[in-house]
Write a structure and sequence with these properties.
By secondary structure, the protein is an alpha+beta fold. Helices cover 31% and strands 17% of the residues.
Length: 54
């Protein structure tokens, strides 16, 4: 579930056990949302709080 979007960051909540597949989907969608001449690299963090995830 998308909780918050701030500029180029997304905060999502997932069910336990689904973290890896959600990270994989988000990374692929963020990096390939639009074709550019430079690569877009998405960094994924994980944690119980936003602070822990950064």
């Amino acid at each position: 579930k998308l909780i918050l979007q701030i500029h180029d960051e997304l905060l999502v909540d997932t069910c336990p056990g689904e973290e890896e597949i959600v990270k994989k989907i988000l990374k692929e969608k963020m990096e390939n949302a639009v074709k550019l001449s430079v690569p877009l690299i998405a960094q994924i963090g994980e944690g119980k709080t936003w602070f822990d995830a950064k």
